[in-house]
Amino acid sequence: MSPVVIALFPVFGVIALGWALRRSGLVAAPLWGGINKLSYQALMPAFLFITISRADYASVPAGSFMLAAAGGFLAMGIIMMAFRLLPMPGPVFTSLFQGGVRWNGFVLLALAPAAFGEEGAALAALAFAPTVPLVNVMCVAVMTVWGKSEHTPNLKRVGLRIITNPIILGCLAGLTANVAGVFQSGPVADTLDLAGRASLPLILLTIGAGLDFTSLRARPGIISLSVTAKLLIAPAVFYALGILLGVEGVALAVLVGIGATPGAAAAYVLAREMGGDAEMMAGHVTATTLLAAITMPIWIAIAAL
Questions:
Q1: In angstroms, rounded to a whole number, what is the distance separating the alpha carbons of residues 3 and 116?
Q2: Residues 57-115: pLDDT tens digits?
Q3: DSSP code of 224?
Q4: What is the pLDDT of residue 159?
Q5: Nearest alpha-carbon partner for 219 in 142, 304, 299, 281
Q6: Helix (H, G, I), strand (E, B), or coil: what is residue 1?
Q7: Does domain 3-304 have CATH number 1.20.1530.20?
Q8: For residue 264, what are the contacts with CB-CB under 8 A and spacing of at least 6?
Q9: Contacts of 96 by beta carbon, 8 Å cutoff, 6+ apart
Q10: Domain boundaries, the chain
């Protein structure tokens, strides 16, 4: 059996456990928001800091990899803009756009150590630094133009939220520590390492808790289109750019893995805040999370050929 498939079992097993815990009521519904906030704003930045600060990027093609990752999201943004030619309300288009360009990097981070080793895990973590602000800027711009909101979006506040994103700050701090050779060992690093280990299991549980199967009935045609864009078109685009830029080996597999990840729950939050089709967005996240268990190993195997 493929190492990627084997590595995916526990990842999606924990996601399924999160769904079961929410359905059972063992964890009260209001608590999930707090768990997600703790994981996203405190524990995950610690994990990214430690992973990036301790990585040996001199031995991997980090430059071409980062360029291909950023280029992949830009290319997907252009491709998704072409769908505006189809007859659909503006808010629906914004959710379709988000479905094609947003990625759930936490699934890849959980998969990377077992599937790609330390080198792959370091590259997967590093990819967050340029792509999180890029994707957010694209999505906010589209939501501002075509979203339907009762109030004018505060672009200054949105911009401040992007540049102060804990995930971005954790990546930049880790990269700074890597270059400076500080906080890679010792009590501070050990504390962050211990805290960071809790982030991925908790985030995977919250992903499962957020699955909403009833939302799959919302605009099934558009959801099918967004799922196709995310799980079929995006990996192909990332693969093509990787080949074009000379990315190969583990780096190419991680790059294609970025393109093949499921949709991110953050897309639902933005759709709700800025006048997108939130229900359709929830359906997209649910569908891609389920189907990525099948499509991710296939795409990564293609990249490994």
A1: 9
A2: 887 788 999 999 999 999 999 999 999 999 999 999 999 999 999 999 999 999 999 99
A3: H
A4: 78
A5: 281
A6: coil
A7: yes
A8: 102, 103, 104, 105, 285
A9: 80, 83, 88, 222, 225, 226, 229, 280
A10: 3-304
